[in-house]
Write a structure and sequence with these properties.
Helix content: 25-40%
CATH topology of the largest domain: Rossmann fold
Number of helices: 8
Largest sheet: 7 strands, mixed
CATH superfamily of the largest domain: Formyl transferase, N-terminal domain
Order of helices and strands: EHEEEHEEHEEHEEHHEHEEEEEEH
Distance between the termini: 55 Å
Mean pLDDT: 95
CATH architecture of the largest domain: 3-Layer(aba) Sandwich
Low-confidence stretches: none
Structural class: alpha/beta
CATH class of the largest domain: Alpha Beta
Number of domains: 2
Number of strands: 17
């Protein structure tokens, strides 16, 4: 099948590879332009662009690059932009969406599933419509969320989505007979920096969910501290207090506490919580986290 592929992050790469492995003719890959990264400001391609280069595929950075293209379908995986109705009228598109639609339509479905404590999530292969994630679903696959970190769950969903996409494209019946979404929609708004800010007014369980997303931080006596790993503890520690008990560094939450395992102080490398506590030389009687 002659296809165009639209995607950007690492989670879209398995789908692109699966299309090529299945023998589809991917005539164009549309992804975001290179961005400056690191202290040197080196221009870096998106993961999808890097993969497309490796596979010898033609690359574009604008939707209008599709204007003169003769393809049967487009495939969209975490492209990051809405596709206008005019383009969809010319090029029907399938979307690999990382949720069980209509739950978690929008930009951050995996993150929101973790934060909400969903027991399961999955992948929906749907026909793309102008409205956000409203299209009918051709195939759905489910996975357990459990205590997985965001990176682990995304990798699992990316692989599952690539397989489901290949299955849909290989089946005339699945392509021709999508089902309308059923149920109450929920929306997965993009996360902000403050969504990663740990606060003592939250429950211990909710704090560990935020930590599983990565980039979690708090302030200990006014100094920023990244929290990389932690577990829920039933020890009673006052909300906002920091305590050392039985060799564990505890942060008091609204209902219990969390035991820090790995942290990264500002301008330092990752270290064990005990190593951080020993080096910080905090006054155990007055130390607070906010």
């Amino acid at each position: 099948m002659r296809l165009a592929f639209l995607g950007t992050p690492e989670a879209a790469v398995p789908s692109l590879r699966s299309l090529v492995d299945a023998g589809h003719d991917v005539e164009l890959v549309v992804t975001r332009p290179d961005r400056k990264r690191g202290r040197g400001g080196v221009l870096t391609p998106s993961p999808v662009k890097a993969c497309a280069r490796e596979l010898g595929l033609t690359i574009g950075h604008r939707l209008r690059d599709l204007d003169e293209l003769d393809v049967e379908r487009g495939v969209v995986v975490a492209y990051g932009r809405l596709i206008p109705a005019e383009l969809l009228s010319r090029v029907p598109m399938l979307n690999v969406h990382f949720s069980l639609l209509p739950r978690w339509r929008g930009a951050a479905p995996v993150e929101r599933a973790i934060l909400a404590g969903d027991h399961e999530t999955g992948v929906s292969i749907m026909t793309l419509e102008e409205e956000l994630d409203t299209g009918p679903v051709h195939l759905e696959r489910r996975v357990e969320v459990g205590e997985k970190r965001l990176s682990t769950l995304l990798d699992e969903l990316a692989t599952l989505g690539a397989r489901a996409l290949s299955e849909v494209l290989a089946s005339a019946q699945l392509l021709a007979n999508p089902r309308a979404q059923q149920g109450e929609p929920t929306y997965a708004a993009k996360l902000t920096r403050e969504d990663h800010h740990l606060r003592s007014s939250s429950t211990a369980v909710q704090l560990t969910r935020i930590i599983r997303l990565g980039r979690a931080f708090t302030f200990v006596n006014g100094r920023r501290l990244l929290i990389e790993e932690a577990t829920v503890q039933r020890d009673v520690v006052a909300p906002g207090a920091v305590a050392l008990r039985d060799g564990r560094v505890l942060l008091g939450a609204s209902d219990a506490s969390i035991a820090l395992e790995r942290v990264r102080p500002e301008s330092h490398k990752s270290m064990s919580a005990i190593a951080w506590w020993s080096g910080a030389r905090l006054d155990a009687q007055s130390v607070q986290w906010t």
